[in-house]
Amino acid sequence: MEERKVKLELKDMAKKYDNGDGVEHINLKVYEGEIVTFLGPSGCGKSTILRTIGGFMDVTDGDILVDGQSIVNLPPEKRPTAMVFQSYNLWPHMTIYENLAFGLKLRKVPKKEIDAEIKKMLELVSMSGFEKKYPGQLSGGQQQRIAIARSLLLKPSLLLLDEPFSALDAKIRQQMREELKKIQSDLGITVIFVTHDQEEAMALSHRIVVMNKGKFDQVGTPGEIYDSPATLHVASFIGEMNFIRNGGSTIAVRPEDIVVNKGHGPMEAVVRTIMMLGHYVVLTVQRGNEIIKCYVDRELSDQLREGDLVNLTIGKHTVFSRAA
Amino acid sequence: MKNKTKGLLAAYGMVLPAFLVVMLTVAYPIVSAVIQSFQDEDTGAFTTANYTYFFTETAQRNNLLYTLFVVIVTVVIAIVLAYLLALYLRFVKSGISRAIGMLYLLPRFVPTMCAVYAMITIIRDSGLINRIGLLFGLDIKLGLMYHASGIIVMNMWFNIPFATMMIAAGLGAIPDSIIEASRDSGAGRWKTFTSMILPLSMKDVVVASTFVFMSNVGSFTTPYLMGGNSPKMLGIALYDQFNKYLSYNRSAALSVIMFLICSVSAAVYIYTNLKEKDWEK
Q1: Which residue of B has its CA nearest to A55?
Q2: Considering only CB atoms, which chain A residues are within 8 Å of B188?
Q3: pTM over 0.95
Q4: What is the ipTM of this complex?
Q5: What is the DSSP letter of A45?
Q6: Which are the contacts of B65, defined by CB distance < 8 A and separation ≥ 6?
Q7: Is A323 a residue whose pLDDT tops 80?
Q8: What integer pLDDT is reported at residue A1 of this predicted model?
Q9: Pfam families, alphabetically (chain B) (predicted)?
Q10: Class of domain B63-280 (CATH, top level)
Q11: Dihedral pair phi/psi, residue A28, rounded to 5°
Q12: Residue A160's closest chain B neighbor by CA?
């Protein structure tokens, strides 16, 4: 495999708050053209890392390199990064045109060029014709599209997105994800994305960094993280997972990796509920004290009633020692 | 239908007491003062002499100009200092800024008389500053007493905390992400201030200015205790007309003049509040 260019490198970076919270020993390489997502519950430090990259927080230790150049001593306006925030992104007293032109004017781009670039960018985010509107006149989804356009116009080396879609409703959020992914692949830009929504992380990312309590739990492709979670936290945070106790260890198995058969067998359980969710059925079965969730097809579920005895066969799974 | 009438009666019944109080204590005196201001002192006939007196008599005209000078200088200095203080409180996160944030309103709780006398004992030519200077062999005479500059200094005591409170509320409403997005786009601190913070807080600055302006046009205690004999501020001039010269028609005319000066500022205030900028729609 050819050597890929490293766009961003975090070297033993640390950011400690006065109360002792924060992140430390953060090491990561992000390659050019990649979407890397920091995923974790709130307070895990994912936004802290993003804000130190953007220059809105000083690091307490370590280094941040973009294209091999250290940027830790630069103020935000001198960094080759552009950030999109969760909300209140756009400047409310400026029109969409003025919002988009602000950074370009500072860079002394000629007016004609600014107009042309804004026109092109508005097309890219499907917001043509909104130049004269004010942010307050747009919906949340439209505002975030403009915010992304504003960041892209500055041709950043690195685009930073801090939960940009979390204030939007579910349908728009999905649409925005697809658009972002398309824009990213069209422009080949490197993106760092922060979210607490595992579905969003899975859908968008080339690689995911799962974080917990200021540390990296696992770094990997969505497939790797889904199929072989490194820790119990990752296993429980990403997707649906059953945790079955087995002596001194815990078996983590996904609902779709359990084969259910009617009748007796070595791992018997009793059907508790049957929920139709469209093309598949969610079955919960009780085995001892444990409730196990399985996905089965319609053909099987039609034959089952609550209280029926079934046998489970565990397919692909991960074993964690109980202490973990 | 009957219920509706009852409801209406109840509604008017509840508004009526407040309405009558306003009519009797505010509207009636205003109307009668306006009428009186156009009446001749002896004959009661219609005249504009009461007004022309204040604009043509040199001493009176000087009082008017002097008042406007003191008030406008007070507004400008108080608002600039208050804005700087509010910026500091909003953007500097430190123990000192938190302490100032808690204490800056304190001067407003000191009764006016006490504060003015306290200030006089410090700044007068034989005051605290002079005595400290004498210890070092310096005879510092500030010359602030009975002079416009003394009144202006004293006005700062009351108006900076008040203006800071209003402007700080406005600055507090500007989300950090607006400022961060500006820095992120390549704007330095100064550019971010002029393009984001200043326009977004301009409305609060205008509103604070109008309040400081109005409260100082009719001020009495400070100019009474610290002002000179001539020119005088309008509050004192009014006091003279009413209590010394017992000239009620001229007092009425001067009251109307002061009211009109204030109403310019009130108009600015109402205009700023009512006029929604395009982006606020």
Answers
A1: B184
A2: 75, 77
A3: no
A4: 0.81
A5: S
A6: B231
A7: no
A8: 46
A9: BPD_transp_1
A10: mainly alpha
A11: -160, 140
A12: B184
Can you tell me the distance from the alpha carbon of A218 to that of A109, in angstroms, rounded to the nearest whole number?
43
Residue-wise over B115-140: b if at least 16 C-beta within 10 A, else e? bbeebbeebbeebebbeeeeeeeeee
For A215, list phi and psi in degrees, rounded to 5.
Answer: -130, 160
Burial track A96-112 (b if 16+ CB lie within 10 A, e otherwise)? bbbbbbbbbebeebeee
Q: So where are chain A's domains?
A: 6-232, 244-321
Distance, in Å, from the CA atom of A297 to the CA atom of A302, rounded to the nearest integer, reads 9
B183 touches chain A (CB under 8 A): yes
In contact, A82 and A76? CB cutoff 8 Å: no
**Residue B61 and residue B81: Cα distance in Å, rounded?**
30
Q: How many CB pairs under 8 A join A and B?
A: 75
Q: Does A132 touch chain B (CB under 8 A)?
A: no
- Is-contact B76 B160, C-beta < 8 A? no
User: What is the rounded CA–CA span in Å between residue A293 and residue A277?
Assistant: 13
Closest CA–CA distance from residue B179 to any residue of chain A (Å): 9
A109 CB near a chain B CB, below 8 Å? no
Q: Is residue A199 within 8 Å of residue A205, measured between CB atoms? A: no
The span from the CA of B100 to the CA of B91, in Å, is: 13
Look at B184 and A54 and tell me if their CB atoms are within 8 Å: yes
- A85 → chain B, closest CA residue: B177
Residue B276 has pLDDT above 80, yes or no: no
Burial class, B31, CB count within 10 angstroms (exposed 0-12 / middle 13-18 / buried 19+): exposed
Q: Where are the domains of chain B?
A: 63-280
CA distances in angstroms from A292 to A232, A255, A298, listed in the order given: 17, 8, 18
pLDDT at B96 over 60: yes
DSSP string, A243-271: EEEETTEEEEE-GGGEEEEES--SSEEEE
Residue type, A172: I
Q: Would you tell me the crossing angle of helices B58-91 and B95-103 to the nearest 10 degrees?
A: 140
Distance of alpha carbon B14 from the chain centroid: 33
B219-274: pLDDT as tens digits: 999 999 999 888 999 999 999 999 999 999 999 999 999 999 999 998 998 888 88
Tell me if A207 sits within 8 A of A37, measured CB to CB.
yes
Distance from CA of B189 to the nearest CA of A (A): 9
**Cβ separation B185–A135 shorter than 8 A:** no
Nearest to B185 among A88, A106, A137 (CB): A106
CA-nearest residue to A107 within chain B is B186
Per-position DSSP letters for A165-215, written without gaps between them: TTTS-HHHHHHHHHHHHHHHHHHT-EEEEEES-HHHHHHH-SEEEEEETTE
Q: Dig out the tokens for A111 from the structure.
A: 């007016």
Radius of gyration of chain A (CA): 24
Q: What is the dihedral of CA B92, B95, B99, B102, to 10 degrees?
A: 70
Looking at the domain that runs over A244-321, which CATH code has it been given?
2.40.50.140
Task: Give domain A6-232's CATH architecture.
Answer: 3-Layer(aba) Sandwich (3.40)
pLDDT at A126: 87
Any idea which residue has 């005895």 for tokens? A309
Most distant CA pair in chain B, distance: 88
